[in-house]
Specification:
It is built from 20 helices and 18 strands. By secondary structure, the protein is α/β, with parallel strands linked by helices. The strands form 2 sheets. It has a 16-stranded mixed beta sheet that branches. It has a two-stranded parallel ribbon with strand order 10-16. A hairpin with a 3-residue loop joins strand 5 and strand 6. Helix 4 packs antiparallel against helix 12.
Length: 481
Protein backbone atom coordinates (compact mmCIF):
# COMPACT_ATOMS: atom_id res chain seq x y z
CA UNK A 1 0.00 0.00 0.00
CA UNK A 2 2.81 2.38 0.90
CA UNK A 3 4.56 1.69 -2.42
CA UNK A 4 1.35 2.29 -4.31
CA UNK A 5 0.83 5.57 -2.46
CA UNK A 6 4.38 6.71 -3.23
CA UNK A 7 4.08 5.78 -6.89
CA UNK A 8 0.75 7.56 -7.10
CA UNK A 9 2.36 10.94 -6.42
CA UNK A 10 5.91 10.19 -7.64
CA UNK A 11 5.00 9.56 -11.26
CA UNK A 12 3.09 12.84 -11.71
CA UNK A 13 5.92 14.69 -9.94
CA UNK A 14 8.53 13.17 -12.26
CA UNK A 15 6.36 14.00 -15.27
CA UNK A 16 5.97 17.61 -14.17
CA UNK A 17 9.72 17.88 -13.46
CA UNK A 18 10.45 16.45 -16.92
CA UNK A 19 8.30 19.01 -18.71
CA UNK A 20 9.63 21.86 -16.56
CA UNK A 21 13.19 20.82 -17.42
CA UNK A 22 12.31 20.59 -21.13
CA UNK A 23 10.76 24.06 -21.07
CA UNK A 24 13.76 25.49 -19.20
CA UNK A 25 16.23 24.02 -21.68
CA UNK A 26 14.09 25.12 -24.62
CA UNK A 27 14.04 28.63 -23.17
CA UNK A 28 17.85 28.65 -22.95
CA UNK A 29 18.07 27.58 -26.60
CA UNK A 30 15.54 30.22 -27.68
CA UNK A 31 17.17 33.14 -25.85
CA UNK A 32 20.53 32.24 -27.40
CA UNK A 33 18.97 33.69 -30.59
CA UNK A 34 20.64 31.18 -32.88
CA UNK A 35 19.59 30.02 -36.33
CA UNK A 36 15.85 29.15 -36.00
CA UNK A 37 16.19 25.87 -37.90
CA UNK A 38 19.10 24.77 -35.74
CA UNK A 39 17.29 25.89 -32.58
CA UNK A 40 14.25 23.78 -33.45
CA UNK A 41 16.53 20.85 -34.20
CA UNK A 42 18.20 21.16 -30.82
CA UNK A 43 14.83 21.43 -29.04
CA UNK A 44 13.76 18.19 -30.76
CA UNK A 45 16.95 16.47 -29.57
CA UNK A 46 16.39 17.69 -26.00
CA UNK A 47 12.77 16.45 -26.03
CA UNK A 48 13.85 13.01 -27.21
CA UNK A 49 17.01 12.79 -25.06
CA UNK A 50 16.50 15.20 -22.14
CA UNK A 51 19.78 14.83 -20.23
CA UNK A 52 22.05 13.77 -23.08
CA UNK A 53 20.44 16.30 -25.43
CA UNK A 54 21.07 19.20 -23.04
CA UNK A 55 24.70 18.17 -22.56
CA UNK A 56 25.10 17.90 -26.34
CA UNK A 57 23.70 21.41 -26.74
CA UNK A 58 26.04 22.83 -24.11
CA UNK A 59 29.09 21.34 -25.79
CA UNK A 60 28.08 21.47 -29.45
CA UNK A 61 25.30 23.98 -29.91
CA UNK A 62 26.11 27.18 -28.07
CA UNK A 63 27.88 30.04 -29.80
CA UNK A 64 30.61 32.50 -28.92
CA UNK A 65 28.48 35.62 -28.89
CA UNK A 66 30.02 38.82 -27.60
CA UNK A 67 33.51 37.31 -27.78
CA UNK A 68 36.04 39.93 -28.84
CA UNK A 69 38.83 38.27 -30.77
CA UNK A 70 41.16 41.27 -30.61
CA UNK A 71 40.95 44.77 -29.18
CA UNK A 72 40.03 47.65 -31.48
CA UNK A 73 43.39 49.29 -30.81
CA UNK A 74 45.33 46.18 -31.83
CA UNK A 75 43.10 45.65 -34.85
CA UNK A 76 43.80 49.20 -36.05
CA UNK A 77 47.51 48.63 -35.51
CA UNK A 78 47.46 45.46 -37.60
CA UNK A 79 45.31 47.02 -40.30
CA UNK A 80 47.81 49.88 -40.61
CA UNK A 81 50.60 47.34 -41.01
CA UNK A 82 48.67 45.53 -43.73
CA UNK A 83 48.51 48.68 -45.86
CA UNK A 84 45.22 47.65 -47.48
CA UNK A 85 44.48 49.45 -50.72
CA UNK A 86 41.37 51.66 -50.80
CA UNK A 87 38.69 49.44 -52.29
CA UNK A 88 36.78 51.94 -54.50
CA UNK A 89 39.92 52.92 -56.44
CA UNK A 90 41.06 49.44 -57.41
CA UNK A 91 37.81 47.96 -58.67
CA UNK A 92 37.25 50.34 -61.61
CA UNK A 93 38.74 47.93 -64.15
CA UNK A 94 36.53 45.07 -62.95
CA UNK A 95 32.90 44.32 -63.73
CA UNK A 96 30.18 45.94 -61.58
CA UNK A 97 29.35 42.51 -60.13
CA UNK A 98 32.96 42.00 -59.00
CA UNK A 99 33.09 45.52 -57.59
CA UNK A 100 30.01 44.81 -55.48
CA UNK A 101 31.51 41.59 -54.11
CA UNK A 102 34.76 43.35 -53.18
CA UNK A 103 32.89 46.15 -51.43
CA UNK A 104 30.78 43.58 -49.58
CA UNK A 105 33.91 41.79 -48.38
CA UNK A 106 35.39 45.08 -47.25
CA UNK A 107 32.19 46.12 -45.45
CA UNK A 108 31.75 42.82 -43.60
CA UNK A 109 35.35 41.94 -42.71
CA UNK A 110 37.45 45.03 -43.42
CA UNK A 111 39.43 43.04 -45.98
CA UNK A 112 41.58 44.96 -48.41
CA UNK A 113 41.88 44.29 -52.11
CA UNK A 114 45.22 43.45 -53.74
CA UNK A 115 45.42 43.83 -57.54
CA UNK A 116 48.12 42.48 -59.84
CA UNK A 117 48.90 39.42 -57.71
CA UNK A 118 50.59 36.39 -59.31
CA UNK A 119 48.78 33.18 -58.27
CA UNK A 120 49.52 29.51 -58.96
CA UNK A 121 46.90 26.79 -58.48
CA UNK A 122 47.80 23.31 -57.21
CA UNK A 123 45.25 20.56 -57.85
CA UNK A 124 47.07 17.69 -56.15
CA UNK A 125 49.06 17.19 -52.98
CA UNK A 126 52.30 16.13 -54.64
CA UNK A 127 52.79 19.37 -56.57
CA UNK A 128 51.54 21.46 -53.64
CA UNK A 129 53.87 20.00 -51.04
CA UNK A 130 56.83 20.01 -53.44
CA UNK A 131 56.42 23.77 -53.83
CA UNK A 132 55.71 24.39 -50.15
CA UNK A 133 58.70 22.40 -48.91
CA UNK A 134 61.02 24.18 -51.37
CA UNK A 135 59.80 27.62 -50.22
CA UNK A 136 60.08 26.67 -46.55
CA UNK A 137 63.67 25.50 -47.03
CA UNK A 138 64.50 28.78 -48.78
CA UNK A 139 63.04 30.94 -45.97
CA UNK A 140 65.39 33.63 -44.65
CA UNK A 141 63.37 35.79 -42.23
CA UNK A 142 60.16 34.30 -40.85
CA UNK A 143 57.54 31.57 -41.22
CA UNK A 144 53.95 31.76 -39.98
CA UNK A 145 51.83 28.65 -40.40
CA UNK A 146 48.37 27.48 -39.32
CA UNK A 147 46.62 24.19 -40.02
CA UNK A 148 43.55 22.31 -38.86
CA UNK A 149 45.44 19.01 -39.16
CA UNK A 150 49.22 18.66 -38.79
CA UNK A 151 49.93 14.92 -38.73
CA UNK A 152 53.05 13.20 -37.42
CA UNK A 153 53.52 11.19 -40.62
CA UNK A 154 56.08 11.51 -43.43
CA UNK A 155 55.13 14.94 -44.77
CA UNK A 156 54.31 16.23 -41.29
CA UNK A 157 57.72 15.16 -39.98
CA UNK A 158 59.45 16.65 -43.04
CA UNK A 159 57.83 20.04 -42.48
CA UNK A 160 58.34 19.89 -38.71
CA UNK A 161 62.06 19.23 -39.26
CA UNK A 162 62.29 22.25 -41.57
CA UNK A 163 60.55 24.48 -38.99
CA UNK A 164 62.98 23.25 -36.32
CA UNK A 165 65.97 23.87 -38.58
CA UNK A 166 64.79 27.39 -39.42
CA UNK A 167 64.11 28.25 -35.78
CA UNK A 168 67.63 27.14 -34.87
CA UNK A 169 68.98 29.35 -37.66
CA UNK A 170 67.38 32.30 -35.89
CA UNK A 171 64.24 32.78 -37.99
CA UNK A 172 60.98 33.71 -36.29
CA UNK A 173 58.78 30.63 -36.71
CA UNK A 174 55.17 30.42 -35.49
CA UNK A 175 52.80 27.45 -35.75
CA UNK A 176 49.10 27.58 -34.87
CA UNK A 177 47.31 24.22 -35.02
CA UNK A 178 43.76 23.24 -34.13
CA UNK A 179 43.68 21.21 -30.92
CA UNK A 180 40.73 18.99 -31.87
CA UNK A 181 41.92 18.57 -35.46
CA UNK A 182 45.24 17.27 -34.08
CA UNK A 183 43.75 15.31 -31.18
CA UNK A 184 45.33 12.05 -32.36
CA UNK A 185 48.79 13.61 -32.76
CA UNK A 186 51.16 12.90 -29.82
CA UNK A 187 51.97 16.01 -27.80
CA UNK A 188 55.69 15.23 -28.07
CA UNK A 189 55.46 15.91 -31.81
CA UNK A 190 54.65 19.57 -31.10
CA UNK A 191 56.82 19.85 -27.98
CA UNK A 192 59.85 18.80 -30.06
CA UNK A 193 59.28 21.86 -32.24
CA UNK A 194 58.67 24.11 -29.24
CA UNK A 195 61.88 22.92 -27.56
CA UNK A 196 63.81 23.91 -30.70
CA UNK A 197 62.47 27.47 -30.62
CA UNK A 198 59.35 27.23 -32.76
CA UNK A 199 56.50 29.20 -31.19
CA UNK A 200 53.73 26.59 -31.10
CA UNK A 201 50.16 27.31 -30.03
CA UNK A 202 47.04 25.09 -30.07
CA UNK A 203 43.80 26.79 -31.06
CA UNK A 204 41.02 26.49 -28.46
CA UNK A 205 42.46 23.72 -26.34
CA UNK A 206 39.28 22.70 -24.46
CA UNK A 207 39.50 23.71 -20.81
CA UNK A 208 37.07 24.75 -18.13
CA UNK A 209 35.25 27.08 -17.79
CA UNK A 210 35.14 27.65 -21.58
CA UNK A 211 34.99 23.96 -22.54
CA UNK A 212 31.33 24.00 -23.58
CA UNK A 213 31.62 27.08 -25.78
CA UNK A 214 34.91 26.23 -27.50
CA UNK A 215 34.85 22.46 -28.10
CA UNK A 216 32.70 22.71 -31.23
CA UNK A 217 34.25 25.93 -32.58
CA UNK A 218 37.29 24.86 -34.52
CA UNK A 219 39.87 26.75 -36.56
CA UNK A 220 39.61 25.15 -39.98
CA UNK A 221 41.93 27.70 -41.63
CA UNK A 222 45.00 26.52 -43.52
CA UNK A 223 47.65 29.03 -44.46
CA UNK A 224 51.40 29.57 -44.72
CA UNK A 225 53.28 32.87 -44.93
CA UNK A 226 57.01 32.90 -45.69
CA UNK A 227 59.31 35.95 -45.42
CA UNK A 228 56.27 38.26 -45.74
CA UNK A 229 56.32 37.72 -49.51
CA UNK A 230 55.04 34.15 -50.19
CA UNK A 231 51.65 32.84 -49.14
CA UNK A 232 49.65 29.62 -49.42
CA UNK A 233 45.96 28.95 -48.75
CA UNK A 234 43.56 26.16 -49.68
CA UNK A 235 41.95 22.89 -48.73
CA UNK A 236 45.03 20.77 -48.00
CA UNK A 237 46.16 20.02 -44.46
CA UNK A 238 49.57 18.62 -43.55
CA UNK A 239 49.13 14.84 -43.80
CA UNK A 240 50.22 12.07 -46.17
CA UNK A 241 46.66 11.30 -47.28
CA UNK A 242 46.53 14.66 -49.07
CA UNK A 243 49.30 13.31 -51.30
CA UNK A 244 48.46 9.63 -51.77
CA UNK A 245 44.87 9.24 -50.58
CA UNK A 246 45.84 7.23 -47.52
CA UNK A 247 44.49 3.75 -46.80
CA UNK A 248 40.88 4.54 -47.72
CA UNK A 249 41.13 6.39 -51.04
CA UNK A 250 42.97 5.71 -54.27
CA UNK A 251 43.56 9.41 -54.86
CA UNK A 252 42.91 12.65 -53.03
CA UNK A 253 41.68 15.55 -55.15
CA UNK A 254 42.22 18.94 -53.53
CA UNK A 255 43.03 22.54 -54.41
CA UNK A 256 45.37 25.10 -52.85
CA UNK A 257 46.99 28.24 -54.23
CA UNK A 258 50.30 30.07 -53.88
CA UNK A 259 50.64 33.83 -54.26
CA UNK A 260 53.31 36.47 -53.69
CA UNK A 261 53.68 40.17 -53.01
CA UNK A 262 51.67 42.61 -50.92
CA UNK A 263 48.65 40.26 -50.85
CA UNK A 264 50.53 38.17 -48.28
CA UNK A 265 49.83 40.99 -45.81
CA UNK A 266 46.12 40.19 -46.10
CA UNK A 267 46.72 36.60 -45.01
CA UNK A 268 49.20 37.69 -42.33
CA UNK A 269 46.60 39.99 -40.82
CA UNK A 270 44.15 37.15 -40.16
CA UNK A 271 46.89 34.90 -38.80
CA UNK A 272 48.02 37.68 -36.44
CA UNK A 273 44.44 38.11 -35.18
CA UNK A 274 44.11 34.37 -34.49
CA UNK A 275 47.52 34.34 -32.81
CA UNK A 276 46.51 37.18 -30.52
CA UNK A 277 43.13 35.54 -29.84
CA UNK A 278 44.96 32.57 -28.32
CA UNK A 279 46.73 34.84 -25.85
CA UNK A 280 49.94 35.41 -27.77
CA UNK A 281 51.29 38.92 -28.21
CA UNK A 282 50.55 41.06 -31.18
CA UNK A 283 53.29 41.03 -33.80
CA UNK A 284 53.94 43.33 -36.72
CA UNK A 285 55.02 42.30 -40.18
CA UNK A 286 56.31 43.96 -43.31
CA UNK A 287 54.41 44.40 -46.56
CA UNK A 288 56.60 43.40 -49.49
CA UNK A 289 55.63 44.77 -52.89
CA UNK A 290 56.20 42.29 -55.69
CA UNK A 291 54.33 41.48 -58.89
CA UNK A 292 57.04 39.21 -60.31
CA UNK A 293 55.49 36.07 -61.76
CA UNK A 294 57.00 32.59 -62.27
CA UNK A 295 56.32 29.63 -64.59
CA UNK A 296 52.95 28.13 -63.71
CA UNK A 297 51.53 31.28 -62.15
CA UNK A 298 48.76 33.47 -63.52
CA UNK A 299 49.71 37.15 -63.34
CA UNK A 300 47.51 40.14 -62.60
CA UNK A 301 44.95 38.45 -60.34
CA UNK A 302 43.00 40.66 -57.95
CA UNK A 303 42.69 38.94 -54.57
CA UNK A 304 40.82 39.54 -51.33
CA UNK A 305 40.97 37.33 -48.23
CA UNK A 306 37.58 36.83 -46.59
CA UNK A 307 37.14 35.13 -43.24
CA UNK A 308 34.18 33.78 -41.33
CA UNK A 309 33.74 32.59 -37.78
CA UNK A 310 31.38 32.29 -34.80
CA UNK A 311 32.66 35.52 -33.25
CA UNK A 312 31.96 37.67 -36.32
CA UNK A 313 29.14 40.18 -36.41
CA UNK A 314 28.63 39.36 -40.08
CA UNK A 315 29.75 36.19 -41.79
CA UNK A 316 31.72 37.71 -44.64
CA UNK A 317 32.21 34.31 -46.23
CA UNK A 318 28.55 33.28 -46.22
CA UNK A 319 27.42 36.69 -47.45
CA UNK A 320 30.00 36.76 -50.25
CA UNK A 321 28.99 33.26 -51.38
CA UNK A 322 25.32 34.23 -51.28
CA UNK A 323 25.84 37.47 -53.19
CA UNK A 324 28.03 35.81 -55.83
CA UNK A 325 25.40 33.13 -56.48
CA UNK A 326 22.49 35.58 -56.36
CA UNK A 327 23.99 37.86 -59.02
CA UNK A 328 25.22 35.05 -61.29
CA UNK A 329 24.13 35.33 -64.92
CA UNK A 330 25.83 32.42 -66.71
CA UNK A 331 27.25 29.72 -64.46
CA UNK A 332 27.97 28.60 -60.92
CA UNK A 333 30.39 25.67 -60.46
CA UNK A 334 30.90 24.32 -56.93
CA UNK A 335 33.26 21.61 -55.68
CA UNK A 336 32.83 20.61 -52.04
CA UNK A 337 33.21 17.43 -49.98
CA UNK A 338 29.98 18.16 -48.07
CA UNK A 339 26.81 19.81 -49.33
CA UNK A 340 24.58 20.93 -46.46
CA UNK A 341 23.39 24.40 -47.46
CA UNK A 342 21.32 26.51 -45.11
CA UNK A 343 17.94 27.80 -46.25
CA UNK A 344 19.31 31.05 -47.70
CA UNK A 345 22.10 29.37 -49.66
CA UNK A 346 19.76 26.65 -50.94
CA UNK A 347 17.28 29.28 -52.11
CA UNK A 348 20.06 31.23 -53.86
CA UNK A 349 21.22 28.15 -55.78
CA UNK A 350 17.72 27.06 -56.77
CA UNK A 351 16.71 30.59 -57.75
CA UNK A 352 19.80 30.97 -59.94
CA UNK A 353 19.13 27.65 -61.65
CA UNK A 354 15.45 28.41 -62.21
CA UNK A 355 16.49 31.75 -63.74
CA UNK A 356 18.58 29.95 -66.36
CA UNK A 357 22.03 29.95 -64.72
CA UNK A 358 24.04 26.75 -65.29
CA UNK A 359 24.50 25.51 -61.70
CA UNK A 360 26.71 22.43 -61.18
CA UNK A 361 27.76 20.85 -57.90
CA UNK A 362 30.48 18.20 -57.62
CA UNK A 363 30.68 15.91 -54.58
CA UNK A 364 32.85 12.87 -53.79
CA UNK A 365 31.52 9.44 -54.66
CA UNK A 366 33.72 8.05 -51.88
CA UNK A 367 33.67 9.94 -48.60
CA UNK A 368 35.45 10.26 -45.27
CA UNK A 369 32.10 10.70 -43.45
CA UNK A 370 29.09 8.52 -44.29
CA UNK A 371 26.84 10.57 -42.01
CA UNK A 372 27.69 13.79 -43.85
CA UNK A 373 27.45 12.02 -47.21
CA UNK A 374 23.88 10.86 -46.53
CA UNK A 375 22.94 14.32 -45.24
CA UNK A 376 24.48 15.92 -48.33
CA UNK A 377 22.62 13.65 -50.74
CA UNK A 378 19.29 14.39 -49.08
CA UNK A 379 19.41 17.85 -50.69
CA UNK A 380 19.97 16.57 -54.21
CA UNK A 381 16.41 15.65 -55.22
CA UNK A 382 14.90 19.09 -54.61
CA UNK A 383 17.94 20.79 -56.17
CA UNK A 384 17.71 18.62 -59.29
CA UNK A 385 14.02 19.48 -59.44
CA UNK A 386 15.13 23.09 -59.89
CA UNK A 387 17.58 22.12 -62.64
CA UNK A 388 20.83 21.94 -60.64
CA UNK A 389 23.24 19.31 -61.98
CA UNK A 390 25.16 17.01 -59.60
CA UNK A 391 28.33 15.04 -60.28
CA UNK A 392 29.98 12.38 -58.11
CA UNK A 393 33.78 12.33 -58.43
CA UNK A 394 34.82 8.67 -58.73
CA UNK A 395 38.65 8.28 -58.64
CA UNK A 396 38.95 9.08 -54.91
CA UNK A 397 38.16 11.65 -52.25
CA UNK A 398 37.15 15.10 -53.54
CA UNK A 399 38.13 17.51 -50.76
CA UNK A 400 38.58 20.83 -52.59
CA UNK A 401 36.52 23.89 -51.69
CA UNK A 402 36.12 25.77 -54.96
CA UNK A 403 33.49 27.98 -56.58
CA UNK A 404 33.46 29.62 -60.01
CA UNK A 405 30.84 32.22 -60.95
CA UNK A 406 30.39 33.62 -64.47
CA UNK A 407 33.62 34.79 -66.18
CA UNK A 408 35.61 36.78 -63.60
CA UNK A 409 35.07 35.50 -60.04
CA UNK A 410 36.48 32.36 -58.45
CA UNK A 411 37.34 31.32 -54.91
CA UNK A 412 39.55 28.71 -53.26
CA UNK A 413 39.97 28.13 -49.55
CA UNK A 414 38.94 26.15 -46.51
CA UNK A 415 35.16 26.64 -46.64
CA UNK A 416 32.93 23.63 -47.23
CA UNK A 417 29.42 24.27 -48.54
CA UNK A 418 27.79 23.37 -45.21
CA UNK A 419 26.47 24.75 -41.93
CA UNK A 420 29.68 24.15 -40.02
CA UNK A 421 31.89 26.13 -42.38
CA UNK A 422 29.38 28.94 -42.89
CA UNK A 423 28.36 29.38 -39.24
CA UNK A 424 30.45 27.42 -36.72
CA UNK A 425 34.09 27.12 -37.74
CA UNK A 426 36.78 29.74 -38.28
CA UNK A 427 37.34 29.67 -42.07
CA UNK A 428 39.14 31.66 -44.77
CA UNK A 429 38.99 31.87 -48.56
CA UNK A 430 40.82 33.86 -51.17
CA UNK A 431 38.39 35.59 -53.54
CA UNK A 432 40.02 35.98 -56.95
CA UNK A 433 39.02 38.39 -59.69
CA UNK A 434 40.58 37.47 -63.03
CA UNK A 435 39.16 36.13 -66.27
CA UNK A 436 42.24 33.98 -66.85
CA UNK A 437 42.06 32.50 -63.34
CA UNK A 438 38.32 31.93 -63.75
CA UNK A 439 38.95 30.03 -67.01
CA UNK A 440 41.71 27.96 -65.41
CA UNK A 441 39.62 26.81 -62.45
CA UNK A 442 36.54 26.23 -64.62
CA UNK A 443 38.67 24.16 -66.99
CA UNK A 444 39.85 21.98 -64.09
CA UNK A 445 36.23 21.56 -62.97
CA UNK A 446 35.29 20.38 -66.46
CA UNK A 447 38.28 18.00 -66.46
CA UNK A 448 37.04 16.57 -63.15
CA UNK A 449 33.57 16.19 -64.68
CA UNK A 450 35.04 13.67 -67.13
CA UNK A 451 36.13 11.61 -64.12
CA UNK A 452 32.72 11.92 -62.46
CA UNK A 453 29.31 10.34 -62.82
CA UNK A 454 26.37 12.64 -63.53
CA UNK A 455 23.50 12.00 -61.12
CA UNK A 456 20.38 11.65 -63.25
CA UNK A 457 17.08 12.67 -61.62
CA UNK A 458 15.14 9.58 -62.76
CA UNK A 459 17.77 7.18 -61.43
CA UNK A 460 18.05 9.14 -58.21
CA UNK A 461 14.32 8.91 -57.52
CA UNK A 462 14.52 5.11 -57.90
CA UNK A 463 16.95 4.59 -55.01
CA UNK A 464 15.78 2.29 -52.20
CA UNK A 465 13.44 3.36 -49.42
CA UNK A 466 16.16 2.48 -46.91
CA UNK A 467 18.54 4.97 -48.51
CA UNK A 468 15.89 7.67 -48.49
CA UNK A 469 15.18 7.07 -44.80
CA UNK A 470 18.89 7.22 -43.93
CA UNK A 471 19.25 10.45 -45.87
CA UNK A 472 16.19 12.00 -44.20
CA UNK A 473 17.40 11.10 -40.70
CA UNK A 474 20.88 12.50 -41.41
CA UNK A 475 19.35 15.64 -42.90
CA UNK A 476 17.28 16.12 -39.74
CA UNK A 477 20.55 16.14 -37.82
CA UNK A 478 22.33 18.33 -40.39
CA UNK A 479 21.85 21.66 -38.55
CA UNK A 480 23.88 20.15 -35.70
CA UNK A 481 26.63 18.58 -37.82
Amino acid sequence: MILLAISAWLWPAVTVAYFVAILAVAWIIVIDNGNPVRSLGWIAVVVLLPVLGFLMYLFLGRGLKNTRVISRRKRRRLAATSEHSPVPRVVKSLSPDSARLIRLGHATTGAGFFPDTPVEVYNDGESFFTALVADLRAARECINMQYYIFADDNIGTTIADILIEKAREGLKVRLLYDYVGCLDVPSKFFSRMADAGVEVEPFFKPAFPRLASTLNRRNHRKGVMIDNVIGYIGGMNVADRYINGGDSFGTWRDTSVKFTGSAVAGLQYHFAVDWNFMGRGIFEYNTVESTDSWPGAIAGVGVQFITGGPTDRYSGLALTYFKAIAQAKKRVYIQTPYFLPNTAMLSALMTASLAGVDVRVMLPSMTDSHLLAYASRSFMAECMGAGIKFYLYEPGMLHCKVMVVDDEFSTVGTTNFDYRSMETNFEENVMMYSREMNRSIASQFEEDMRLSKRVMPREWHRRSRGEKIRESVCRLLSPML
